[in-house]
Amino acid sequence: LPGLRLSPLGAVPQRDRRPRLINDLTFNAVNEGTLHQAPPEAMQFGRTLERTMVQIANQNPKFGPVRAQKIDLSDGFYRVPTNAVQALNLACLVPRKGNESPLIAVPLSLPMGWVESPPWFCALTETIADLANARIHAGNLPPHRLETLALQSGSDNLSITPIEPPAGFQPL
Fold first, then answer.
1. Nearest C-alpha neighbor of 164 from the set 138, 145, 142, 146
2. What is the DSSP string of 37-99?
3. What separation in angstroms does the CA of 78 have from each of 48, 73, 107, 110, 113?
4. Distance between CA atoms of 91 and 158, rounded to whole angstroms?
């Protein structure tokens, strides 16, 4: 196949978890030859704790105590599609057992190990957050698919009151 570049799989050790498989895209210099087009400003990991603490310190007490939730998006890379033709550059050899036929895997979504995956994934999640926040503030959200079921849970005095953002609230 024109453009096919094969790289071996690698394993990144994880604390208290099984190792994470990645494409070793340094093998055929795929990472080194990648044209960097992802927006570098999407990578905001360096100040996450500081930004979170500022938001907590400046929260409006009328809304009660701050509640936080950590969501693991580590598998989110596998939800961002790639261009099928260009994905041939990101192909990897699948380890085989004994005399099995050799297999290759062509990722049709962002692979762990490609130098451009983290900034593209961050840009996508930032865009999703911006769109969701805009819809929330515009007040044009469709009802949740389980809202009717929740309201029919047997409680007659159940009321849902939308929470208004505090005056002067500016999302990060």
1. 138
2. -S-GGG--GGGHHHHHHHHHHT--GGG-S--------GGGGGGSB--TTGGGGG-EEEP--TT
3. 23, 10, 9, 6, 12
4. 53
Q: Tokens 């085989």 label which residue?
A: 96
CA atoms within a 13 Å half-sphere pointing along the CA-CB vector of 124:
16
CA distances from 126 to 3, 44, 75 (A): 31, 10, 16
What tokens does 11 get?
């394993």
Cβ-based neighbours of 135, under 8 Å, separated by 6 or more: 141
118-171 pLDDT per residue, tens: 888 888 888 888 888 888 888 877 777 777 777 776 555 556 565 666 677 666
* Cβ–Cβ < 8 Å for 104, 92: yes
Q: Which two tokens stand for residue 88?
A: 């041939």
Q: Which residue has the tokens 């895209």?
A: 25
* Three-state DSSP class for residue 18: coil
3-state SS assignment for residue 20: strand
Residue-wise pLDDT tens digits, 31-63: 898 999 988 888 876 677 788 889 899 999 888
The gap between the terminal CA atoms of the chain, to the nearest Å, is: 45
* Pair of tokens at residue 17: 């978890």
pTM of this structure: 0.61
